[in-house]
Amino acid sequence: MSGGGTAPGFPGTALLEAQEERLTLSRFTHEDAWALGSALVGLARERRAPVAIGIRRGRQQLFHCALAGSSADNDAWIDRKRRVVERYGESSLLVGSRFRARGTTFEESSRLDPDRYAAHGGSFPIRVDGAGVIGTVTVSGLPQTEDHALAVEALEHLLAT
User: Fold this and answer.
1) Domain housing 131
2) How many domains does one find in the chain?
3) CATH number, domain at 64?
4) Phi, psi angle pair for 89, to nearest 5°
5) How many CA atoms lie within 13 A of 100 on its CB side?
6) Is 121 within the bounds of a domain?
7) Does a structural domain hold residue 6?
8) Torsion over CA of 23, 18, 122 and 99, rounded to 10 degrees?
9) What's the whole-number average pLDDT of the chain?
10) How many CA atoms are closer than 13 Å to the CA of 97, on its beta-carbon side?
11) pLDDT classification of 13: cutoffs 50, 70, 90
12) At what angle do helices 92-101 and 72-88 cross, to 10 degrees?
């Protein structure tokens, strides 16, 4: 386990918090959404990952792609994970990890409809300096820690360009 005392196989809350702090952008334009989405598609294709990808700024969907092997279920997971980020202002994996660290689960203790909210990894806040969380990038189709890692990797790529 790494920092935060979360369940085996999951990154600790301290690591997840550090990722969010480190992955704060100076801006996020339509062109940035395209670059982020394109980076995700490229990474997923290299790995033959059967994922769907969604990027939103506020209520507007700026990017969506469903790669071979993904399904409409992945779109539903994108919506459920995204709603967690919009509600809590943190990645869906971090929210789920906080519940696990308290010895419970999101489904048992959040009092939110599990048909509408899923604190499973894969949705990450798009945070802009001086503005806070302005959107989300979400991946669905892999195990939740891999969905999360793919979104993080693409955000790291966007920050490096």
Assistant:
1) 13-160
2) 1
3) 3.30.450.150
4) 70, 20
5) 20
6) yes
7) no
8) -150
9) 94
10) 27
11) very high
12) 70
